[in-house]
Amino acid sequence: MIKIMKYGQVPNSEIFARVTPAVDVEAIVADILADVRQNGDQAVLKYCARFDKAELETLEVSPREIEEALADLEPGFLEILREAAANIRAFHSRQVRNSFVIADRPGIVLGQKVTPIEKVGVYVPGGTAAYPSTVLMDTIPAKIAGCPQIVMVTPPGKDGKINPAILAAASIAGVDRIFKVGGAQAIAALAYGTQSIPRVDKIVGPGNAFVAEAKKQVFGMVSIDMIAGPSEILVIADGRSNPVHVAADMLSQAEHDKLASAVLVTDSEELAKEVCEELERQLPLLPREEIARASINHNGKIIVTENLMQGIEIANEIAPEHLELMVDDPFAYLDAVKNAGSIFLGRSCPEALGDYFAGPNHTLPTSGTARFSSPLSVDDFVKKSQFSYYTADALGAAADKIAAFAEKEGLRAHGRSVTIRKEGLD
Length: 426
Known about the structure:
By secondary structure, the protein is α/β, with parallel strands linked by helices. The chain has helices at 12-15, 26-39, 41-51, 63-72, 75-93, 132-145, 164-173, 183-192, 209-218, 243-254, 269-282, 289-299, 308-318, 331-334, 351-356, 392-408, 412-425; strands at 3-6, 100-105, 108-116, 119-123, 149-154, 177-180, 202-204, 223-224, 232-237, 261-266, 301-304, 322-326, 342-345, 382-390. Helix 2 (26-39) packs across helix 8 (183-192), helix 3 (41-51) packs antiparallel against helix 8 and helix 16 (392-408) runs antiparallel to helix 17. The longest helix has 19 residues, at 75-93. It starts with a strand and ends with a helix.
């Protein structure tokens, strides 16, 4: 059963305790990365057989397989995918940054050039569940950014096939190439390249502990979006909230993973008790009850506060991946929220709306990293180059100041590279 805590009556170490994976995967992942780096496709195929129980002849998904997936998928769900993609596209299109030029002083031109990343790798989880929503969320911003090549990797089933919904989402989103590989070996293939899988410049997308560790280890050779931890939700709810809805929203994240974290912060002791009872009523109704129950029992908590502003302070300290403000006037509290990945406002805005359909991205900072990082966006798929142009006269006017700066830092050659040009003018 979920724990109920009274803020101020239990140690803060319990209130702000964080979930950490129990398995040490660093050495295992390092061996897989080294094997794939050295042996390419041979190693990837070996790990597909070992971990996914799939005996593959080729790694790449063929155009025919994509056509079959589109034909096999229910027309109604295909339309839902297209509508969700349109919502995601509309939201992320507002994030586009443009290059700029500043030429407001004689002889000086400064600016910034925005260039899309050339090759992007998108990791889409498989295994216990298929996530076509991740395909849309991680690919559409890259397409809007103008990335020339998007390569997707995702684990195959034992039959060597990819879930049709994932292939349909990839087709709608505009993925260029798709490969049947998951786990740390997929990250290795994207980072180093193999005979079949091209090396990319950036890898995005969530995954299990092995995927997260692999992304961590290849960072520097390629860029990554973030190290995604277990899913999190924090609901701030007042006494007028419906306990049935609160419990359902908490379970929407608890069913992801036994390490997922579902937290309720409320100023109502009565609501706290009702949500506790409602969780126990709803848990047996879930197909993934075992996973959700482990999450709720071990990582879930209900924190009772004196008022809602105290709840906002707790949320800012926890910096959750998903934050629901289940109150009558959520906009009154929005400015007070400083640290959260994605914020869901009001009583009719469950977190699942953001997972699938609304438009904002669902690839979000976890484990408190919302204190300093942001949801996946178009910005993640571009890089910026600065440029400067000075005429000889403009450089000459600044030369002595630059030389003085360089001298103060003990870097005389820096200053001389400027003054030697001024001497030529004189």
